[in-house]
Amino acid sequence: KMDDDDDDIPQLSSHTLAALQEFYLEQQQREGMKTSQGFNQYSIGSIEEDWQLSQFWYSDETASCLANELVVAAGKGGRIACVSAPSVYQKLKEQDGKDFSVCILEYDRRFSVYGEEFIFYDYNHPLNLPENLLPHSFDIVIADPPYLSEECLKKTAETIKYLTKGKILLCTGAIMEEQAAKHLGVKICKFIPKHSRNLANEFRCYVNYASGLD
Question: For residue range 105-155, what is the model confidence (pLDDT) as tens digits?
Fold first, then answer.
């Protein structure tokens, strides 16, 4: 009889099953997929940092400051692109009532939970972008290249220059000041961005327009 074979299948105890269900629920919640009342899928940290991908989220205050700057710089009905800067994208989405549109270009596919606004992006292939992402179609581009290397900055710069109508807001290490000027023509701002965890490298913002970050 087939039924007899069932005895050989290891059965999880109800306690283990409950623990597993709790684990999966917590994981789902962390991934930003639980959208029931009281859970904000756009809150910073709803998708956890993956250090292997060199991910370090901004502090809430910094993300808010950068998001507000982008909205002002983009202008009424403006388009904003967030390149490898998901915590700023999340902060912008919290202001969703305002008159602007935003998309997120990101390597980490966990952010695909945000639907059509998510565009898979690998800086190693800077112009490997969807056809509907037209050149010079964004009023401002914010980018936070994942690595502090000239190669990473140079390739990300190709993407930025392709996307932006002109305005650029770059967030990267203070040690990249010279390369940032060389590849993007941006200057360092007085505003100092902070991360939710303290990083060893000093971080700075760079712009190529008259911003509110000075």
Answer: 999 888 888 899 999 999 999 999 999 999 999 999 999 999 899 999 999
**pLDDT exceeds 80 at position 42:** no
Scored b (16 or more CB within 10 A) or e, 148-162 reads: beeebbbbbbebbbb
d(CA 214, CA 209): 11
CB neighbour list of residue 95: distance below 8 Å, 6 or more residues apart = 67, 71
Q: Which residues are CB-contacts of 59 (< 8 A; sequence separation ≥ 6)?
A: 194, 195, 196
Structure tokens at 79: 């388009």
Nearest to 70 by CA among 47, 87, 50, 51: 87
Residue 185, Ramachandran bin (φ over 0: left; ψ between -120 and 50: alpha; else beta):
left
Question: Would the pTM count as exceeding 0.70?
Answer: yes
Instruction: Count other Cβ atoms within 10 Å, centred on residue 192.
Output: 13
- Cα distance from N-terminal residue to C-terminal residue, the chain: 78
Residue type, 120: F
Are residues 117 and 107 in contact, defined by beta-carbon separation less than 8 angstroms?
Answer: no
